[in-house]
Design a protein that fits this description.
heterodimer; A: about 120 residues; mainly beta; 4-stranded antiparallel beta sheet; B: 6-stranded mixed beta sheet; about 0% helix
Amino acid sequence: DAGVTQSPTHLIKTRGQQVTLRCSPISGHKSVSWYQQVLGQGPQFIFQYYEKEERGRGNFPDRFSARQFPNYSSELNVNALLLGDSALYLCASSLFLTPNTGELFFGEGSRLTVL
Amino acid sequence: KQEVTQIPAALSVPEGENLVLNCSFTDSAIYNLQWFRQDPGKGLTSLLLIQSSQREQTSGRLNASLDKSSGRSTLYIAASQPGDSATYLCAVRMEEYGNKLVFGAGTILRVKS
């Protein structure tokens, strides 16, 4: 079975541009979460979606938005890119939201570089 | 606000040595704790998940313990191998119905052959 897949794997943008990152969860998983990992730090929570509804949002500006589609895949959009948005963006999926079934499985990430 | 700290920040050991990685958290009201491995430039691989009601979990050469009341978890790696070289991250889950994890900064492990 395929794991969590993310695209693109690497991309370079310039300040002020917009970017869309894509994620396909493990088959059967209904929850998708997005994390940002700056070099040398642990991942920071951005968003969580379950059954196409936003179920959580981290401390990120409104330039960050996301959505989940009927097939449970998800997109993360970042507008008006800043140099500080350069990071590895990780997508994670889980079967449900409850802790006892809530083991998170991560994809390989999308490496965004903003010049 | 939950804060997760991992000590040491980096560790270099000879092959075959047993080692312990430490994780501490400030708020003991967690639902579970998960240990991950991350290879350079890659995503996270889940190693072990410990529910708040459990004391430890084992998988092969890995054993993770959880002392929720003291806000501590340890990851024990037995008979380390060069292939174990990676960054190890611990993360705690604070919400009953949510997938927000709070991560530590990780321990960079190098196992020398």
